[in-house]
Amino acid sequence: MTVYFIGAGPGAADLITVRGARTLADCRVCLYAGSLVPRELLAECPPDARLVDTARLDLDQITAELLRAHEEGHDVARLHSGDPAVFSAVAEQMRRLDAAGVPYEVVPGVPAFAAAAAALKRELTVPTVGQTVILTRVANRATAMPEGEDLATLGRSGALIVLHLAAQYVDRVVAELLPHYGADCPAAVVAYASRPDELVIRGTLDEIAGKTKEAGVLRTAVIMVGRTLGAEQFRDSHLYSPERERHVC
């Protein structure tokens, strides 16, 4: 059998990839985070599939479910919200499977920051304004951040910064980024990106905290801060420039 770590996308059930949906349909066992993965996706599973909500399971219990399926000879769909590449906690699951000799594959998904950018109708990398995107979070009750990855350090770059799992700490985020980005820097908070209850909050860095708290946003949101969010006057990309030499094959 094989364990498939599948990116379920940011929230909308139809944002899972074609490959992800097809893989899900072939797996007799599905482990999913009930609080994050849309229930509609489970309809893609075989009618007789064993469905396991991992919302209340710890790593040992999740591993036990994967090993049980392996012993029974069933492929497993391990559904993770967004994309498994970032903030998904798949690394420790892969490490456990490596130790047990259980094969696995990864099926990428649409990450939350991409869905948030779509909601804002913004390209995050704009010519001459910003070409770098930093994906990060803040440390509080979760695992501590590595040395040199605090907001004060990352903010010195001036690059567009995207914070996951940080909405309830928006005051702290603003305080640490203000010295580097300035009060007038465009900022946004997107909650429940791509879902029916999606909420988009726009403003400047010095006002985004107040707007976020007024809206009652505490979780399931990304915070974005950077000049590309408000860029209007910028040079066209060289990609489609008439000055670019093109070769016809």
TrEMBL record:
Presence of keyword Repeat: no
Keywords: Cobalamin biosynthesis, Methyltransferase, S-adenosyl-L-methionine, Transferase
InterPro entries: 4pyrrol_Mease, 4pyrrol_Methylase_sf, 4pyrrole_Mease_sub1, 4pyrrole_Mease_sub2, Cbl_synth_CobM/CibF, Siro_Cobalamin_biosynth, Uropor_MeTrfase_CS
Pathways involved: Cofactor biosynthesis; adenosylcobalamin biosynthesis
Annotated TM spans: none
Pfam families: TP_methylase
Chain ranges of the Tetrapyrrole methylase domain: 2-209
Protein family (similarity comment): Belongs to the precorrin methyltransferase family.
Alphabetized PANTHER family for the sequence: COBALT-PRECORRIN-4 C(11)-METHYLTRANSFERASE, SIROHEME SYNTHASE-RELATED
Protein name (Swiss-Prot/TrEMBL): Precorrin-4 C(11)-methyltransferase
Organism field: Streptomyces coeruleofuscus
